[in-house]
Amino acid sequence: MRKAIAGAIFVAVLLAGSAVAQPVGGGAGAGAGGSAGVGASVGAGVSAGGGAAVLDIARTEQLMAGFTDVLNTSTDRTSLLVALGMLRDAAWTPALPAARRLAVSQDDAEVRRAAVKLLGWHGEARDWELIMLGLYSDDEADVLAAIWAVEHYGDERGIGYLDDVAAQAGPVVAAAAKDSRARLEQFLEELAGPSARDLTVADVPRLRSEMISARLSGLDDAGAQAEALATTMRLVLRRAAAEDDP
Fold first, then answer.
1. Distance of alpha carbon 216 from alpha carbon 236, whole angstroms
2. What single-letter DSSP state applies at residue 235?
3. What is the pLDDT of residues 187-221, one digit of tens each?
4. Is the pLDDT reported for residue 73 higher than 90?
5. Are 139 and 109 in contact (CB under 8 A)?
6. Cα pseudo-dihedral 192, 240, 82, 12, rounded to 10
7. Among 74, 69, 57, which Cα is nearest to 211's?
8. Helices (H), the chain
9. How far is Cα 160 from Cα 227, in angstroms, rounded to an integer?
10. Which long-range contacts (CB under 8 A, 24 or more apart) does 7-12 make?
C-alpha cells in the first residue's frame, strides 16, 4: 500500500510541475479529501498522458532536489517516508546528510529505518558503521532494516556480518540474513564481472532519469526495469568508490 501511495504522490508532484516543498498530505486539514485529490490528479494525468512519462535529466534532478528539501524541512511522517522511498535508490548524493541525521536522531522508528536503507543503497564509506549499528539492535525491525542495508551496500565485509547474524538470531532474522547474504554474493560477482563496465559516474544522471521514467511508464515490467537500472547505478558507483579508495 505504501508503495502505491508513494507512486501516486510522485506522479501528482510531477504533473503539478512542483519540486515538492510542502508535506505531501496536502497540509493541515487535508485529511481524506487531500488523498482523494491526489488520486484524482494522478488519474487525470495518466489518462491525458497515455500512462507514460519520460523525464529528462534536469527534470529528474529538480524532483530529487524537491524530495531532499522534504527531508530537510518536513516534520510530517508520511512526507518523510515518501521522500526517503523515492530517494532511496536514486543515487542522489545531496540527500545523504539529511538521511544520516534522520537515521540517528529521528524519533519515528520507521523513518529511521527508511533512512538507514537509503544509506545502505547509495551511502558513502563513512556510512558503513552507521548501517552496521542496526545489526546489534534489540528491535527485530531495526535488525531487518540493517540486514537489507548491508546487503545493498555491496561490500564483501557484509558477508561475515550476515553470517554472524544468521548464526545467532531467531528464525525470522536468520532467514533474512541468509537470503541477503546470497543476494550480496550475487552482487559481488556482478561487481567483479563485465556487467556495465562501459559505464562511468558520468552516466549516473542519465541512468537515474531512465529509472524514474521507468517507474512512471505504467508498463507491466516497470518495476523490473527500474530495479535493473538502480542496480546498474550501484555497480558503477561501487566500482568508482573502490577506485578512489583501493
1. 23
2. H
3. 999 999 999 999 999 999 999 999 999 988 888 99
4. yes
5. yes
6. -100
7. 57
8. 2-16, 31-49, 57-73, 77-87, 96-105, 109-122, 128-133, 140-153, 157-168, 171-192, 204-216, 222-244
9. 26
10. 7/215, 8/38, 8/39, 8/42, 9/38, 9/82, 10/63, 10/82, 10/86, 10/215, 10/216, 11/42, 11/45, 11/46, 11/53, 11/216, 12/38, 12/41, 12/42, 12/45
* Cell numbers standing for residue 7: 507512486
d(CA 86, CA 229): 14
The pLDDT tens digits for 141-155 are: 999 999 999 999 999
- Rg (C-alpha) for the chain, rounded Å, is 18
- The residues near 95 (Cβ < 8 Å, ≥ 6 apart) are 64, 67, 68, 71, 87, 118
CA angle 209, 191, 164 (to 5 degrees): 110
Rounded to the nearest 10 degrees, what angle do helices 31-49 and 2-16 cross at?
70
Query: If you search the block for the grid coordinates 523525464, which residue do you land on?
Result: 55
CA distance 82 to 87: 9
Residue type, 202: A
Residue 243 has a pLDDT of: 85
> For 160-165, what is the mean pLDDT?
97
Stated pTM of the model? 0.80
Encode pLDDT of 176-189 as tens digits: 999 999 999 999 99
